[in-house]
UniProtKB/TrEMBL annotation:
The keyword Ribonucleoprotein applies. Belongs to the acetyltransferase family. RimJ subfamily. This is Ribosomal protein S5-alanine N-acetyltransferase. One of its GO terms (cellular component) is ribosome. It comes from Agromyces salentinus. Keywords: Acyltransferase, Ribonucleoprotein, Ribosomal protein, Transferase. It comes from the Bacteria. Gene3D superfamilies: 3.40.630.30. The gene is rimJ. The keyword Ribonucleoprotein applies. Residues 11-178 form the N-acetyltransferase domain.
Length: 179
């Protein structure tokens, strides 16, 4: 994805930049409680600027290497969400994993649906065949975002990821990009 894409109300999706670390750390601190039920347990150190400075630089390297498409949602100077295509695999698979979140104060505006659409466009530009995602079984909002973007359910992964301190089942989704 080469150019930023404006979504709605001044929110822009763009590729993460090395200088985004402090704003990313602030976004995670601001959304700590909002994200806690949906993410791995985070140590106090996770919320430090230095951690996200390193993470932003690492994501830029992955993007340049073609192994990830790390995107941020930005409103003014604030990062208000993320959408990532990670674990890009080439060869016979041509697949990536999708993950995303939206700032607590900006949910319910359709931003996640639009941002996932932008990520799918970037996946097509990268010549991927397939994108897959998993949601917690009880995460109806995230499932709706995927379904609005043409994803199909294809399975249930038992004790798939350790989220909020315990192994939890996930519904698996896929989107074939030639459709």
């Amino acid at each position: 994805m080469h150019n930023p894409v404006e979504l709605d109300g001044g929110v822009v999706v763009r590729v993460i930049e090395a200088g985004d670390g402090p704003a990313l750390a602030e976004a995670y601190r601001r959304n700590r409680e909002h994200l806690a039920p949906w993410e791995p347990e985070r140590s106090e150190g996770f919320f430090a600027d230095a951690v996200h400075v390193r993470e932003a630089a690492a994501f830029v390297e992955r993007y340049e290497a073609g192994t990830a498409i790390p995107l941020v949602l930005v409103e003014g100077e604030e990062i208000v969400g993320r959408v990532n295509l990670s674990d890009l695999v080439r060869g016979a698979f041509q697949n990536a994993h999708l993950g995303y979140w939206i700032d607590a104060e900006r949910t319910g505006r359709g931003l996640a649906t639009m941002a996932v659409g932008v990520a799918l466009h970037a996946a097509r530009e990268a010549k991927l065949h397939r994108v897959q995602a998993g949601t917690l079984v009880h995460n109806a909002a995230s499932q709706a975002v995927l379904e609005r973007n043409g994803f199909d359910r294809f399975g249930l992964a038992h004790r798939y990821l350790r989220i909020a301190g315990r192994w939890q089942d996930h519904i698996l989704f896929e989107r074939l990009l030639e459709d």
